[in-house]
Specification:
The protein has 172 residues and is an all-beta fold. The protein has no helices and 8 strands. It has 2 domains: 69 residues, no CATH class; 94 residues, no CATH class. The strands form 4 sheets. Strands 1-2 form a two-stranded antiparallel ribbon.
Length: 172
C-alpha cells in the first residue's frame, strides 16, 4: 500500500557481487510485495552486449519450497559521441591550366603543390571507446588523370593505420 525505501547492503560471496535487501520481518502469510530496483553498475566496457542478474527471494523462516529465483538479462549499450575534425593546409590550391603532372620525375615539386590533410577523431563521451575504425576515402584519380598524388600517411596517439596501395606509387 505505502512506499518505503529499502536498506540494501552490497557484499561479495564466492567472487560474486551480491546485494542483500531486507524486505521486512515479520510478514503476514500471503503478503504480496512489488519492488523496483535501480542498480548502478560500473566497468561494463568489456562485459559484452548483456549483463545477467540472478534474483532470489529467501525466507529466514523454516525451510520452504517457495524460495524462488529468477534470472534477468539486461542488454548493455555503450554510447559515445565521436567528432571528426579536418583541415587542409593550404586551404585552397589552384593549379595553372597548363600544368601537367611530371610522371617520370622523382622531385616532389614536379608533382604539384604539397597539400596536407589533417583529421582528428575526438571522443565526446560519455563512454570510453576502443576498437574504433575510421575509413577515409581520398579521391586520387579523376578519370585517367592524377588528381591527388598520395605521398604518405601517418598517425599519432597509438593508432594503427593501413593504407591504400595507391600511396606513393612512383616512389617520389
Amino acid at each position: 500500500q505505502g512506499q518505503e525505501k529499502l536498506s540494501c547492503n552490497p557484499k561479495k560471496e564466492n567472487g560474486t557481487h551480491v546485494v542483500l535487501c531486507e524486505l521486512g520481518n515479520p510478514m503476514k502469510a500471503g503478503a504480496r510485495i512489488t519492488m523496483d530496483m535501480e542498480l548502478s553498475v560500473s566497468g561494463l566496457e568489456d562485459i559484452g552486449d548483456a549483463i545477467t542478474f540472478h534474483l532470489q527471494l529467501r525466507s529466514k523462516n523454516s525451510p520452504s519450497s517457495s524460495n524462488t529465483s529468477v534470472t534477468v538479462t539486461v542488454p548493455v549499450e555503450a554510447e559515445a559521441k565521436m567528432e571528426l575534425r579536418g583541415n587542409s593546409l593550404p586551404a585552397i590550391t589552384v593549379l595553372p591550366t597548363s600544368w601537367h603532372w611530371g610522371e617520370v620525375s622523382q622531385r616532389l615539386e614536379d608533382h604539384g603543390i604539397k597539400v596536407e590533410h589533417v583529421y582528428e577523431l575526438h571522443n565526446k563521451g560519455p563512454c570510453t571507446v576502443s576498437g574504433v575504425t575510421l575509413s577515409l576515402a581520398v579521391p586520387h584519380l579523376l578519370g585517367d588523370h592524377v588528381l591527388l598524388y598520395l605521398l604518405e600517411l601517418g598517425t599519432e596517439g597509438g593508432m594503427n593505420c593501413s593504407h591504400h596501395p595507391a600511396l606513393n606509387p612512383a616512389q617520389v
